[in-house]
């Protein structure tokens, strides 16, 4: 079975002084999180879409899903997220295991709630190659030179840009394998995690690449909201 897992656990501190987490801000005529859910809900491969958000926002999220998705709202379950990104993903896996069972073929397509411009093609390839390889990450080639600084004051190295990629989401995994690898990590290893793909890398497992899109942006800063609004308006003209 294939499940969509939409990660909405952040509070959006980098967005500045706003009254709500950034995933609930409106772009166009809908909250960002609804735009994102809609990209998943049109794909018939998913047994369920699991949305994970901060505890104080669970009921509000359920109301938004009902308001904007109508009959399709039954395909969505809203759960409380965890204390970190990976603990939030583990919450989704625990739900799947309790409600549907977990086997070697159970697949989760995890995605940032504040990346509302992913395409059907990106989702389709995540599922296809997730099934084939067990772990895939969506990336785009780095266009800027990447500079490494160990201390934050001088350049330590300048990696070969042709080998550098910028990570996006979705990230797709065989859920049981991800759970087993995560539970085998030491506390120190968990401390250095940035996302779920790194769990596989730490354990020497291969993570295959899916080509993303430049416009598959993550809405993080106030400027990103203006860019997103422009993209939404441009889509309406087509």
CATH architecture assignment: Alpha-Beta Complex
Termini, distance in Å?
A: 34 Å
The biggest beta sheet is recorded as:
7 strands, mixed
**Can you tell me the CATH topology?**
Spore Coat Polysaccharide Biosynthesis Protein SpsA, Chain A
Total separate domains:
1
Which value, in Å, is the CA radius of gyration? Answer: 18 Å
Description:
This is Ribitol-5-phosphate cytidylyltransferase. The chain is of the alpha/beta class and 238 residues long. It is built from 8 helices and 9 strands. The protein has a 7-stranded mixed β-sheet with strand order 5-4-1-6-8-7-9, sandwiched between helices. The radius of gyration is 18 Å and the shape is globular.
Task: Supply database-style keywords.
transferase, alpha/beta, 8 helices, EC 2.7.7.40, Spore Coat Polysaccharide Biosynthesis Protein SpsA, Chain A, ISPD_synthase_CS, globular, TarI
Summed up:
This protein has 8 helices and 9 strands.
SSE order and pairing:
Layout: E1 2-7, E2 26-27, E3 30-31, H1 32-41, E4 46-53, H2 58-69, E5 76-80, H3 85-99, E6 107-112, H4 120-133, E7 135-141, E8 165-174, H5 175-183, H6 187-191, H7 196-202, E9 208-211, H8 222-237
Parallel strand pairs: 1-4, 1-6, 4-5, 7-9
Antiparallel strand pairs: 2-3, 6-8, 7-8
Binding site for CTP: 7-10, 82-88, 113
Site (Positions ribitol 5-phosphate for the nucleophilic attack): 161, 218
Site (Transition state stabilizer): 14, 22
